[in-house]
Automatic annotation (TrEMBL):
<keyword id="KW-0067">ATP-binding</keyword>
<dbReference type="Pfam" id="PF00005">
    <property type="entry name" value="ABC_tran"/>
</dbReference>
<comment type="similarity">
    <text>Belongs to the ABC transporter superfamily.</text>
</comment>
<dbReference type="InterPro" id="IPR003439">
    <property type="entry name" value="ABC_transporter-like_ATP-bd"/>
</dbReference>
<keyword id="KW-0813">Transport</keyword>
<dbReference type="GO" id="GO:0016887">
    <property type="term" value="F:ATP hydrolysis activity"/>
</dbReference>
<dbReference type="InterPro" id="IPR050166">
    <property type="entry name" value="ABC_transporter_ATP-bind"/>
</dbReference>
<keyword id="KW-0547">Nucleotide-binding</keyword>
<dbReference type="GO" id="GO:0005524">
    <property type="term" value="F:ATP binding"/>
</dbReference>
<dbReference type="InterPro" id="IPR017871">
    <property type="entry name" value="ABC_transporter-like_CS"/>
</dbReference>
<protein>
    <submittedName>
        <fullName>ABC transporter ATP-binding protein</fullName>
    </submittedName>
</protein>
<dbReference type="InterPro" id="IPR027417">
    <property type="entry name" value="P-loop_NTPase"/>
</dbReference>
<dbReference type="InterPro" id="IPR003593">
    <property type="entry name" value="AAA+_ATPase"/>
</dbReference>
<feature type="domain" description="ABC transporter">
    <location>
        <begin position="1"/>
        <end position="219"/>
    </location>
</feature>
Length: 231
């Protein structure tokens, strides 16, 4: 099987966003860090085949089915939370499975809210519904664009662990601004900056590292300092 990922040069509106890059995916978590505007979301959209403005001059190898959690939650306001969780699978022709949707909603802390509408939720709750939708879908490649950014620290750690367990064995590519999150979860870490995609050393397993892990705290502080230097 050829490796999944993409490589080459990415151009957007007459400028180079990424030069001679190679993003290689494998089962487990690949985390993508980088300053705002560097092109992380564009890269995710290119992988998903959803990018309309940027052009990739190079290669792209992805499985037929890709799961996707965008930066905006993209919840359908007129649908119930249960229907939102099942939406992508339903669009693909899968049979409804409200029991599984309810289980996933409960796992993200929204037990019994199946028939609620997105407008009744806080920003963090909406993000958790979007996460449940990404977990409902059983795609071999799952792209997550800042999936935990709206959550409080305790909920964020719990959702990281939940997602890591639920997506075990699959290829996950996550964009994050949080070095500790990348180090806690990442089997591979890339930094996208100044048109370059640079592999960074991940922490050794186990992933996710426990919260309060000293090695994680030290590595996150060092990585934050490194990211801040060039900012
Ligand atoms: N349709 C477009 N046409 C031209 N430029 C665009 C378009 N969409 C995004 N850009 C620019 O492309 C660059 C990369 O945007 P992108 O959203 O991929 O960055 P990012 O690294 O994900 O940022 P953030 O961390 O803030 O989400 C930015 O400079 C942005 O202004």
């Amino acid at each position: 099987m050829s490796p999944h990922g993409l490589g080459g040069t990415v151009r957007l509106g007459g400028r180079v966003l990424l030069r001679d890059a190679a993003l290689r995916l494998a089962p487990g978590w690949t985390c993508l860090l980088g300053p705002s505007g560097a092109g992380k979301s564009t890269l995710l959209r290119l992988l998903a085949g959803l990018e309309v403005s940027a052009r990739l001059e190079g290669w792209r190898e992805v499985p037929e089915r890709i799961g996707w959690m965008a930066q905006r939650d993209l919840l359908q306001e007129r649908l119930s939370l249960s229907a939102n969780v099942q939406l992508m699978a339903r669009l693909r022709g899968q049979a409804p499975d409200p029991a599984r949707a309810a289980e996933l909603l409960a796992s993200v802390g929204l037990a019994g809210r199946d028939e609620a509408r997105p407008a009744e939720l806080s920003g963090g709750e909406r993000q958790r519904v979007a996460l449940a939708r990404a977990l409902f879908d059983e795609a071999p490649l799952v792209l997550l664009d800042e999936p935990f950014s709206a959550l409080d620290p305790a909920r964020r750690a719990a959702m990281q662990t939940l997602a890591h367990t639920a997506l075990r064995g699959r290829q996950v590519l996550m964009v994050t601004h949080d070095p500790a999150e990348a180090l806690r979860l990442g089997d591979r870490i890339y930094l996208l900056r100044d048109q370059r995609l640079e592999p960074l050393p991940p922490l050794a397993p186990p992933h996710p590292r426990p919260m309060g892990d000293t090695e994680l705290a030290l590595a996150a502080a060092a990585l934050l300092a490194r990211l801040s230097e060039a900012a």
